[in-house]
Batch of 2 targets.
Target 1
Amino acid sequence: MKKKDLINQSYTESGENHQQAQKDNTLTTQQGVKVSDNQNTLKVGNRGPTLVEDFQFREKLFHFDHERIPERVVHARGYGIHGHFESYGDHSDLTIADPLTKKGKKTPVFVRFSTVAGNKGSVDLARDVRGFAVKFYTEEGNWDLVGNNIPVFFIQDAKKFPDLVHAAKAEPDRGFPQAQTAHDNFWDFISLSPESMHMVMWIMSDRTIPRSFRFMEGFGVHTFRMINAKGKSQYVKFHWKPLLGMQSVMWNEAVKINGADPDFHRRDMWQAIEDGQAPEWELGVQVFDEEFEENYEYDILDATKLIPEEVVPIKPLGKMVLNKNVDNFFAETEQVAFCTQNVIPGIDFTNDPLLQGRNFSYLDTQLKRLGSPNFTHIPINAPRCPVHNLQQDGHMAMRNPKGRVNYEPNSWEQDKNNPRESKEEGFHPYPALEMGYKTFERGERFADHYSQAELFYTSQTEIEQEHIQSALIFELSKVETLAIRERMVSHLLNIDKDLAKKVAKGLGIKNLPEPMKMAREKVKDVGNSDALSILKNVKSTLRGRKIGIIVTKNAENELLSSIQKELNNEKCQYDLILQKISEVKMDDGKTHSGDEFIDGAPSVLYDAVIVLGTKDQVKELSKEIAFRDFVNDAFFHKKFIGFNKEIESLILDLLPINETDGGMISLTHKNISKYIKKAKELRYWERKG
Ligand code: HDD
């Protein structure tokens, strides 16, 4: 320890050492008074009662006692990142929206990814929809595109939202299950809401167990309007496409990841950004007009329906890059307040009853969470363009205009503190013609609840269909009430008979129930959309993926170095997993320090694995459950497994096969690129079991 540090060292009563203030770093109270003792309360004698007079103690505790704000009623667990959006071109034929009118124009953004049902402290890999909320800080004000990683929603009308969320969250008497839909209340509600069936197919698919936030699509869900300078309105649906491609994990992996690393998704994002691997998404829109609206089989105002990309292709508009982690989680990720009604000139709403209800809900919820109508004064919510208005006062007001004017009209001189409306530049709602009787009824074309559920299911690969079947069987097996299980099967019969039969069989339902009565006949030809499948769209890349490499004592260093070199070329991350975290001595006497040790790095945390070792060491390792699980899980999760030739038979001894399959590669200096090429397929789906 340097002499300077020693001088600043003192000891508390209990003998712990702690540092005295260096110049200008003195601890103060919130009032700026310097603190002399931050370890001991003020007492009468060193064993006497504590004095209320200790204002430093009282202030410290007072602040601590009030540090929490209410968590979001949904999407409580989230993770925020800064970045920017860059327009590919001038899209002013479509919209005057500020971020889209100039090629290369960059607009700062803040994105919060989230799960929906779980509390703030729940696990990252719950089977759940992921929120994908983007705040654009445009020169024309904040524009919030508050979407999900699924293009449709459970319900058609916002009035049903509180019931949906109540049913999905923990049951009110017992306070569980946490972050899970596998319980009676959820499936009771769903099975009584035929409109949810399309979404059910999505949530039972691998879309709800993404490998990373970086490998997810995002959707604005509703139909919005874009308005150009001539006042022409066109309908749009927003899509975010991850440039790294899509990827999900298997359910058995998700369950294990939640135990091994409950923060798997946030850690992945944090690390990627710290490593300079900023994830990117392309923003695109499906554009269509009123003629399409009138002729489409479904109502474009119905958020439980999508328009296949094959029917209306996506027009790319620009690219979003997320490249900066937050400085303070609470200040930014927790306090960010997204509101669907935050639109700017050039973007407008439609009459989608879900969107209309959201526009009420989001503003309302921010008051509850952030406690003041001045939540826009918090830096993460503050627009980055000028803000002038006559709204004043309220809790924690930070923007306090000077002068005597706080009303309008007034006859005082106009300036920043005395602003006026502008007919030319101000936001004008699109002058849509609206006429009709007041009614609680829904549009007729909202009533076909099964066609697009079938479209989604039949557009999946066989493997993905199997995952949907297993997910339904798993979830419904946790439902105790048999009538609810059967009601779900009767819905599935309207979607796909084979699916219904397989789920019924999995649940031990011997006699199939009658199909649920349909409110409206399904369309004749539901079509097919390859874009709906993850596996039909795998991007052959290891970029952004992570490989777990177990290295034992005396393993061949040259082989390891060649592997590391190739993985670096692919911009693939990797961890060296050792028997002891400290270091490993290789065959040439050189050493490597470990990123992980074997108990802390199960193979579920990696996209592919490699084991490099000597026979003796691997034999020893094979006695350990962590190593056996590592190899077995990698095998059953259909990951590519690489190993040096010498240990091939030992690896096989751990597995239920006698010879290697196409997903297992015995590594030599010459065939590392073969392993890399294979691993880019991400999973060896041909593997049985
Ligand atoms: Fe919502 C949060 C997405 C329907 C009411 N919602 C919230 C967030 C996302 C979504 C991503 C988290 C924002 C953040 O990170 O802070 N919600 C959706 C999508 C929907 C949807 C894509 C359907 C298309 N939501 C929906 C309805 C209502 C709400 C129908 C109510 C009528 N949502 C809320 C909320 C939340 C919210 C209660 C909780 C926290 C918040 O708003 O800021 O107002």
Target 2
Amino acid sequence: MASTPETTPVATYRNYIGGQWTESQSGRTYPITSPASKQTVLGEFQTSTPADALQAVAAAEAALEGWANTPAPARAQVLYRALEIMGRRSDELARTITLEEGKPLADARGEVRRAMNIIEYAAGEGRRMFGYTTPSELPSTVAYTVRRPLGVVAIITPWNFPIAIPAWKMAPALICGNTLIFKPASITPFSAVKLTEVFEEAGLPPGVLNLITGPGGSVGNALVESEAVRGISFTGSTEIGTGIYAEGARRLKKVQCEMGGKNAVILLADADLDKALGGIVQGAFGSTGQRCTATSRVIVEEEVYDSFMEQLVERTGRLKVGDGMAPDTDVSPLSSQSQLDTVLEYIGVGAEEGANLASGGRHLTGGEFDQGYYVEPTIFTDVTPEMRIAQEEIFGPVLTVFKAKDLEEAVQISNSVKFGLSSSVYTRDLPRAYRYINTVEAGMVHVNAPTLGGEVHLPFGGLKASGVGQREQGVEAVDFFSEVITVYIDYADEARTPAPFI
Ligand code: UN1
């Protein structure tokens, strides 16, 4: 008897509003497929509408009083439980990231670890959340500051770190007593559902965290335009972030936007070349370059240019491109057809602009590559600062290489873009390292380390078109997600003459 092929039914996932897993008022869902396997549908997700967004805002408003009045150390207990649950579910969460976003499983595990780190750090803030006291200029008077939540906050996040970025916004927002509407990128709702489940299981009261999935524009606008939303934390493109910031400002909301990058490594002739090569290859091609802190430019002091290039091309050629689930994969697929189209378009632009294609450049096809969105790690040399590939964020595995005669010229090239997120110099020369630190235009500066990453207890963010509003993470996160209230208490038991304030 001929066997019938097994068909696994595709699960449908819902929004989470007011503590209930809820269908969109649109009555519609959309499928999510895997970047390494376009035919594999991971699930159906709600196509949310502005009406769903407003329902989520109402749920967050209703939950605000209770959560804001829960003592911060008690709020922290929920975060500690979430931490414990994430530890238990970390393998499932990492696999979900790899299936949905495409990054290598080892990177996905690192991402989950990072989300756990920020939850742990934010939970600790529950027992700090410092204000300060200071002497008053008046006798019998106490003056101090105290923190209050902003209120209802919208968390709008990208697809490239679908667990860590939401976590590093949510955890500090929650510890400060805010209630949230979480709008993940439309292509990574699965990770968002799982992260929301973690907080539900941790016992977060209904309405404190609300999830709505689906397309960005209309739902995002509804959140930005809602009077009840007092704060917005956004990570994504400079174009969208600029619009959100402008709209938010018009409505006097507190807004934090973490946006694009065009991060450069400067390689000075005295550097440890081997160490620099490792950092540059990882920075440029790790996570398939889909990271706002990716290394997209290298500026090389001319004495070492030839030997650097030879070794860079050789090392890049050894990278294994493949499915993120395979243990030996270095470079996994791009996350979507549109990412693939953009990256291939930029590769075309680089060639047209007269840059020299030193390595890669091809859309990979055939065999397993036909199942996903694969492109070769790509290096352009003879790049000049005015070229588009030197100026615009590509968000893919494309590295541009420049030659400079000395540190000063290298810094000038490094600063010649509209972005200013992360940066790095490789050198053993302390005075030159400090000259670099003091002049480079970037919110995060690395010496002898890749442009990537950051630690959760230190601020994360950029200058210029890379960021606006307060930094994420570190103590700055508590500053962003709270309002500082100044209190004066007059405990004198008689009227003052003259009146205390002039
Ligand atoms: C990292 O460098 O590890 O969107 C994180 C992004 C950044 C996060 C980068 N907000 O890629």
